């Protein structure tokens, strides 16, 4: 049954399901990695009676972790910590991206059900709506994150560095690849997957033809159960009429031979 449903599915549904699977993988990667935005710092360590030592460090931020990496004397190390005490706007970004991910998973399940099991118009409409809402939430979370990080609200702790020990020479912040992965996922879900599912929905025609059950009588006649207009087979008597009636008439020369009335 799954193979038959797959072969009868439209190319739009097949393409949309494959692209949605790619979108889901891309979003999971961007959702998980602590590389939404990075800040590169160049610090100079002040030591008494010694020349200052330059330290290149980076601060990487994700939805669930933030990491500090440093390169000093040709060696590097990174430490990552779970995020705590985040501002309200950051919690909104986390919620929007999480709901978007859940929506993508539900949409994927509906797509596989439609592709391999049964085509249902209600499932197809729900799939389009869920996909649009999920993509919108993902894009809204990205926009909020971009607006807030432009004001450097996420890096207020950088001002707490003790300048008597370390001197900040350069600060450079930029959006990183995990942010753009989530952006690609949101745009593909809205601009590519949803239109393909809508195209498949518009071309959907429910199959209303039911296979008729065939039965055979003891005389070998084929009778079809179902609609009388499409599957009913008439017997030979109904097709050509009933045989003419005969009655007994007696004539003097041949008293036992009946003749047609």
Index terms:
alpha+beta, Butyryl-CoA Dehydrogenase, subunit A, domain 3, elongated, single chain, five-stranded antiparallel sheet, 9 strands, 261 residues
**Approximately how much beta-strand content do the residues carry?**
15-25%
Please report the distance between the alpha carbons of the first and last residues.
62 Å
Widest beta sheet: strand line-up: 4-3-2-1-5
Integer average pLDDT: 75
Class of secondary structure makeup = alpha+beta
How many helix segments? 7
What fold name goes in the CATH topology slot of the largest domain?
Butyryl-CoA Dehydrogenase, subunit A, domain 3
- Poorly predicted runs: 159-166, 208-214, 222-232
Structure summary, number of beta strands: 9
| Main beta sheet | 5 strands, antiparallel
Query: So what's the CATH class of the largest domain?
Result: Mainly Alpha
Model description:
The protein is of the alpha+beta class and 261 residues long. A hairpin with a 3-residue loop joins strand 2 and strand 3. It has 7 helices and 9 strands. Helix 2 runs antiparallel to helix 3, helix 3 runs antiparallel to helix 4 (121-150) and helix 4 (121-150) runs antiparallel to helix 5. It has 2 domains: 10-202, Up-down Bundle (Butyryl-CoA Dehydrogenase, subunit A, domain 3), CATH 1.20.140; 213-260, no CATH class. It is elongated, with a radius of gyration of 38 Å. The strands form 3 sheets. Strands 4-3-2-1-5 form a 5-stranded antiparallel sheet. Strands 6-7 form a two-stranded antiparallel sheet. Strands 8-9 form a two-stranded antiparallel sheet. Helix content is 48%, strand content 23%.
């Amino acid at each position: 049954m799954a193979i038959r449903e797959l072969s009868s599915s439209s190319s739009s549904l097949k393409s949309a399901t494959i692209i949605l699977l790619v979108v889901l993988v891309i979003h999971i990667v961007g959702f998980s990695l602590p590389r939404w935005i990075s800040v590169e710092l160049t610090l100079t360590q002040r030591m008494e009676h010694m020349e200052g030592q330059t330290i290149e460090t980076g601060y990487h931020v994700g939805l669930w972790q933030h990491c500090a990496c440093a390169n000093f004397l040709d060696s590097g190390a990174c430490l990552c910590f779970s995020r705590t005490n985040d501002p309200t706007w950051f919690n909104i970004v986390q919620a929007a991206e999480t709901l978007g991910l859940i929506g993508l998973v539900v949409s994927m399940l509906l797509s596989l059900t439609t592709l391999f099991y049964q085509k249902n118009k209600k499932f197809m409409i729900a799939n389009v709506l869920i996909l649009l809402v999920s993509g919108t939430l993902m894009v809204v979370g990205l926009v909020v994150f971009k607006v807030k990080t432009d004001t450097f609200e996420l890096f207020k702790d950088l001002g707490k560095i003790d300048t008597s020990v370390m001197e900040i020479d350069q600060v450079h912040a930029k959006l990183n690849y995990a942010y753009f992965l989530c952006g690609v996922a949101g745009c593909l879900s809205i601009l590519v997957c949803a239109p393909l599912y809508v195209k498949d929905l518009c071309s959907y025609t429910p199959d209303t033809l039911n296979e008729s059950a065939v039965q055979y009588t003891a005389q070998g006649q084929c009778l079809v159960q179902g609609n009388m207009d499409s599957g009913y087979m008439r017997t030979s008597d109904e097709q050509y009429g009933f045989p003419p009636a005969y009655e007994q008439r007696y004539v003097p020369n041949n008293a036992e031979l009946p003749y047609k009335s």
